[in-house]
Specification:
35 strands, single chain, mainly beta, 5-stranded antiparallel β-sheet
């Protein structure tokens, strides 16, 4: 009998250790305060590379597999007035694309660097633009295809009620493939272009939405596409069946050659969210494969709501991520997000989505844009938001699985309750894909440095794993700004005594 008990206890011990997490922290540097901007570039040849920007200083920290600093490389060749630095990382090198301003000329540059953050070639000027005084100088954006074999740099200028889009398509060696331009009439108070993406075969796609009036919901939606060698942009108009839509999320399914659009919909403008509109465009047949309105039932609303009436249950939810499944379906995640500012009206969804001057606008029109977004990978200090005190709330997570033909398969509500004052960086969640599971990581107790880990299978089976907890005091995790660098490995930004450092977590 004693032997059976020992074997049972040993099995429990082995299973617990097999899913335990190993945490290793980097050192912090004295200048790495909360005023820093950073981006986790990735893992190359067993080294972790992190870009840091403090005022006009630019550097890359290189860490070994134990998060010890190998070297800090100052990017002395980068001019002082440089902004919007983007990275395309590969297994042993990366391409850095940056823009700087000299006088009234914007210069867009590209340089290839190795895993030691050393230049493999001199920076090359990709493009220049003359800008008027007092105009927006953050006009260049870089995106890459999923396989990183194609890179596109595009610039957007909106002047004189014109939308001017110029694109430059490159291969993975930054050899120019094609330049293109799109020009259209534009009313920035009623129209929006968003979701700029690049397919593996070089197709450039984005969405266009239009609303009847200022602060109304959009009631017109199009998918814009351009083939790599084509001169023309094609428009696919999407039938909304006289319904209104929220912010659109666009995702590419490269395996099945589909474009997946999702948005919450309303039966009337400025009403409450009724459900999810999903649209799948089949690139091979050049037509819609799915166009469906999926209403949320009362049982799901009852589980999702934190307070108030059922019909208001999803009014503070925002779509965060679309995870494509191999069979052509997808898993959608959305989060209950709100804020309350002293001296202002409480959180207003319409200010967030449709007022570009609203100071707490959670999305940027451009990927990696100026406003804070936990999915861009940039840390923004609390002082960025101004002097007024704002409390941010980040609550329940909706997870919805939809089949390739647009049929809902299952749904889950992951219950959480988070809030913080004047700072969003410790809120929200991160998803890590590991084997046949998606792990949801978020702070459940920031003061005690506890991160909850819940796993979901493609069939909707939920598993609660042991919490991630720091053995060292003083570290506060920022899970939403994490980056997955291995099959079961994450780099999570941390705050330690007001300084920024990084934790490598092996699951």
């Amino acid at each position: 009998m004693n032997r059976v008990i020992c074997i049972f206890l040993l099995a429990i011990f082995l299973s617990a250790t097999s899913i335990a997490q190993a945490i290793q922290y980097s050192n912090y540097e004295r200048e790495d305060t909360r005023d820093i901007n950073f981006e986790i570039i990735g893992k190359m040849n067993n080294k972790i590379l992190v870009y840091k920007n403090i005022r006009w200083k630019h550097k890359i920290n290189i860490y070994d597999n134990n998060m010890n600093t190998i070297e800090t490389v100052k990017l002395d060749f980068v001019p002082e007035k440089t902004f919007n630095i983007d990275f395309v990382a590969y297994s042993d090198h990366f391409i850095m694309i940056y823009q700087y301003q000299k006088g009234n000329i914007l210069h867009c540059m590209a340089v290839k660097m190795d895993d030691n953050a050393q230049k493999l070639s001199e920076p090359v000027e990709v493009d220049t633009t003359r800008i008027p005084v007092m105009s927006n100088n953050k006009i260049y954006t870089t995106i890459s295809s999923e396989d990183k074999q194609k890179i596109i740099i595009f610039k957007i200028q909106t002047r004189y009620q014109k939308f001017n889009l110029a694109t430059m398509l490159f291969d993975n060696n930054m050899q120019l493939i094609k330049r293109s331009r799109y020009l259209a009439e534009f009313n920035d108070r009623k129209e929006s272009y968003d979701n700029f993406l690049l397919t593996n075969d070089g197709n450039f796609i984005f969405t266009y939405a239009k609303q009847l009036g200022y602060r109304d919901n959009s009631n017109f939606l199009s998918l814009m596409t351009k083939a790599p060698f084509s001169e023309d942009f094609s428009e696919v108009k999407i039938n909304l069946d006289e319904k209104y839509i929220d912010k659109v999320n666009l995702k590419i399914d490269n395996r099945n050659n589909r474009y997946i659009l999702n948005t919450f919909y309303y039966k009337k403008s400025r009403g409450s969210i009724d459900g999810l509109f999903t649209y799948m465009y089949d690139k091979n047949n050049e037509k819609a494969a799915v166009s469906a309105f999926l209403p949320f039932n009362d049982s799901l609303r009852a589980e999702a709501k934190t307070s108030g009436m059922l019909r208001f249950a999803f009014d503070n939810f925002f779509i965060r991520q679309i995870i494509v499944k191999g069979d052509g379906g997808f898993i959608l995640t959305a989060e209950d997000y709100s804020s309350d500012t002293r001296g202002r009206d409480p959180f207003n969804r319409y200010d967030y989505l449709y007022n570009p001057y609203y100071p707490y606008y959670p999305y940027s029109i451009y990927p990696g844009g100026y406003y804070y977004n936990p999915y861009t990978g940039y840390y923004r200090p609390s002082s960025f938001y101004g002097s007024q005190s704002t409390r941010y709330y980040s609550d329940n997570i909706l997870v919805l699985s939809v089949s390739k033909d647009g049929t809902p398969q299952w749904d889950k509500i992951l219950h959480k309750s988070q809030f913080d004052d004047d700072n969003e960086n410790f809120l929200s969640f991160f998803t890590m894909t590991s084997g046949s599971e998606i792990h949801f990581l978020y702070n459940s107790d920031k003061r005690n440095q506890i991160v909850t880990d819940q796993g979901l299978t493609p069939d909707g089976v939920l598993t609660r794993y042991p919490t991630l907890k720091s053995r060292e005091k003083g570290y506060e995790f920022m899970p939403s700004l994490s980056k997955q660098v291995g099959a079961r490995q994450l780099i999570i930004p941390c705050s330690y005594r007001g300084f920024i450092c990084f934790a490598k977590v092996d699951f």
